Amino acid sequence: MEYSWKELIAVDRYIVHANGVLSELDRKVLTLLYQPLIGAQAYSLYMTLWSELEQARLWSEETTHHSLMAIMQCSLPTIYAERLKLEGIGLLNTYVKRTNENDERVFIYELCLPLTPEQFFTDGVLNVFLYDRVGKTKFQKLKKFFSDRAIDRTSFVPVTRSFHDVFSSIQPEKMIHKLSDEAKQEVMLQDGHQYIGKEQAMYTMRDDIFDFDTFYAGLSHHLVPRRAITEKVKDAIKKLAFLYGIGPLDMQKIVMSVIDPAEQIDIEALRKAAQEWYQFERGESLPRLYDRVQPLEERTMAHVEPKNEEEYLMKQLETVSPRQLLMDFSGGVEPALADLQLIEEIMFKQKLPPGVMNVLIYYVMLRTDMKLPKKYVEKIASSWARKKVRTVKQAMELAKKEAREYETFIKEKEKKGSKKPIRTELLPDWLQTDYSQFERKQVKSEEELEQKRRELEERLKKPKS
């Protein structure tokens, strides 16, 4: 999300609140498990806010964001961006109110305790992302670090005494409902206070990241009654669909394969079935960024019927992964490892959505005779990342603009009568929109590129036909 001064300014004040007392174990979980996912700066922001709390206290003193900028030695947009990461992963809740004095704002930054090691390693999303970031060897070391040997207690007999075995009953006259009003006030917690406790961080995913309407529409009520899709099952479906790129139709089959005779769905069985589906479909143990598809909330053609070739292409680029796009281009042949690694690296570093990456691939391959030159791809990717391109439509419009600028440059060169031969490149139809007034110079290479473009678009249409 792009930073805006309306979201946060340096004089805005904030108070830090913790929903529990952070322990040494929490610090290790944050450092070793969360930091690889959120990065060093977001981790530093969390630890800085934590340090503002006095030992075993839940509230800090009020201060300004200018003070936070001075401590962290970074800009306000950076603090805002890192704050969003903490919110997204469930480590921070943010609240704001406007005061009557000069319309100033006061924020409450509520620090949430991280998940326990067991919760983290069995989450189904966070553990897979951690595996992807640190690799197999380090992941196994972290699992070992956060676990310990278990003792077989089957040969032991419990001898623990119950409460009533040790303590005698309270005399009736001392029961709380018989105490005076003054005594009751001593027993009860004062107004405006809360007990110190613990509540683990829980991240959330919106319903619109998965098409539940299509999922329910094709689901047999006789095989899978609606009551079987509980809130926990629904949450698991969203996570698994996001993680493994599972569509609603495939998810129907997965759910039907795990429902038991009692018409209940076991979350762990659902997770294993989704992993098996992914391994069967992709032939890999874990999902990669280049296997993702454009998120539903960032699609412009999700519920729109294409009216022309450009919109059809737009919808195609929104619904295929970069890896599948390369396979479609090559007639189903597995892409080169170097190309996949390049795409993975760019998507990770530049945070480009899958659909935008597809436009970049399509654009570059048509301009470079079906190649993916690393420096050229990186240059365009970094430019689009700086411009906050998030949708396929935005990426295509930007590509059109760059193509128009290139055409203008070529025409000016031709007018000046440059002696050096200028290579004329053929661009996709959607790149030529709004500048068809340019008369292109016909050369032999252009005819070859025209043929390649047609073949390319036919290959892209074929899997969806």
- Overall helicity: 40-55%
Taking strands numbered 1, 2, ... along the chain, how are they ordered across the largest sheet?
2-1-4-3
Judging from the principal axes of the Cα atoms, what is the shape? globular
Describe the sheet with the most strands.
4 strands, mixed
Give the SSE order as H and E letters: EHHEHHEEHHHHHHHHHHHHHHH
Over the alpha carbons, how many angstroms does the gyration radius reach? Answer: 29 Å
Protein name: Replication initiation and membrane attachment protein
Pfam families: DnaB_2, WHD_DnaB
Family: Belongs to the DnaB/DnaD family.
Domain Replicative helicase loading/DNA remodeling protein DnaB N-terminal winged helix: 12-184
Short description:
InterPro entries: DnaB/C_C, WHD_DnaB. The chain has 19 helices and 4 strands. It is mostly helical and 465 residues long.
Description of the molecule:
It is a single chain. This protein has helices at residues 24-38, 40-51, 65-72, 76-88, 117-121, 126-145, 163-166, 181-187, 212-217, 231-244, 248-258, 267-282, 309-319, 322-329, 337-350, 354-367, 374-386, 392-415, 444-461, and strands at residues 13-18, 63-64, 92-98, 105-111. It has 465 residues and is mainly alpha-helical. Among the domains are: 4-114, Arc Repressor Mutant, subunit A (Orthogonal Bundle); 212-282, no CATH class; 291-413 and 443-461, no CATH class. Strands 2-1-4-3 form a 4-stranded mixed beta sheet. α1 (24-38) crosses α6, α2 crosses α4 and α16 packs parallel to α18. The protein is globular and about 100 Å long. The two termini are 35 Å apart. The relative contact order is 0.06. Mean pLDDT is 77; it is low at 172-179 and 433-445.
